[in-house]
Amino acid sequence: MRRHIVGALAAAALAAAGSGALGDDTALLQDERNTIEVFRKASLGVVHVGARAAAETKFEKKVIEAGTASGFFIDAEGRVLTNAHVVDGKNEIDVVLGSGRRVPGRLVGTVPQLDLALLQVDVPADELYPLPLGDSRSLQVGQKVLAIGNPLGLHNTLTAGVVSALNRTVPGTAVELRDALIQTDAAINPGNGGGPLLNSAGEVVGVNALGTNAQSLGFAIPVHLERRVMADLIEMGHAYRPQLGFSGVEITSSLARLFGQPAEPKGKEVSIMTEHAEDGPDEARHGTTCRVCLKPIRASDKRWSVHYRGAEYQVCCPSCVQAFNRAPRQFVEEP
């Protein structure tokens, strides 16, 4: 009888131990399992970017400036997205893959206004793990987000948090990023910049940009801004930025006729007439008054003629010519 009791207790203990071992994964919360799964897949596509400005002489090679950041593959062609400020002015770039292998990187182009840079690495297809891009415009405050990067050079570090706010502006950012940044409490430390900010589906919704001295306060660039410039970056190495502007030019009689417009110039210095101008108007021979300042113009004085709406007027000096040209209607009698 005693043997049966001992055997039953031993069997129960083994069953309990077995169920505990098999239940390790099931003991995790659904949210925890989601975080683990997203990290396992996405971490393979996150890279560590090192950039240096180096000068080489006959005797030595000197690194003048260096920086590190994170990045991630965006396609199966080996293109990597990262922060522009890290690679700006650097002539040497290397990329550490998720496997730990270090390969050289080539700068394709930058969009400094969005702090984005596109790199190219040449690696076998089986080492490329492009991350899917999500829709940052559908984000909601309180939504779970994950940041993966290399803070302080610590490869493939995961931090988790939520979207703390949307459409944020940080002092010193470019106009293009005003009222656009994603605020999160997921830790973003030096070296995290350029890495992906992911939603719970493992899609990139932002590019980690900067952290602050305050705790639980980081910012990311919405991925929909990256989508807008990516084709231009690949094709031209920079974003196409149309500009709107205008310039003005005085419409003279000849220019108006050229474009088929009425010849009604605002006024123009056309000639200098003196007392010897035999073919000039009566005012040139007998004297008159400046149309602008009303100063008497004697027959022996130099004078300027200005035209407006087909009529000719006399002024006494170049300054009055300019004043007449600026606002001719002030000095003429309109019908």
Structure description:
The structure is a single chain. This protein has helices spanning 2-22, 30-42, 84-87, 223-236, 253-258, 282-286, 318-326, and strands at 46-56, 61-73, 79-82, 92-96, 102-104, 106-111, 116-120, 144-149, 157-168, 181-184, 196-198, 204-211, 218-222, 272-273, 288-289, 296-297, 303-308, 311-315. With 335 residues, the chain is α+β, with helices and mostly antiparallel strands. The protein folds into two domains: 42-236, Thrombin, subunit H (Beta Barrel); 253-331. Residues 1-23 and 265-285 have low confidence and may be disordered.
Q: What's this entry about, in short?
A:
With 335 residues, the chain is of the alpha+beta class.
CATH topology of the largest domain: Thrombin, subunit H
Instruction: Kindly state the percentage of residues in helix.
Output: 10-25%
CATH architecture of the largest domain: Beta Barrel
Radius of gyration (Å): 37 Å
Number of helical runs?
A: 7
C-alpha termini separation:
131 Å
SS-derived structural category: alpha+beta
User: Regions with pLDDT < 50 over 5+ consecutive residues?
Assistant: 1-23, 265-285
Number of strands: 18
Give the strand content.
Answer: 25-35%
The first-level CATH class of the largest domain is given as Mainly Beta
Mean pLDDT across every amino acid position: 81
Strand order of the largest sheet: 5-4-1-2-3-7-6
Domain count: the total is 2
* Overall spatial form: elongated
Order of helices and strands: HHEEEHEEEEEEEEEEHHEHEEEEH
Largest sheet: 7 strands, antiparallel
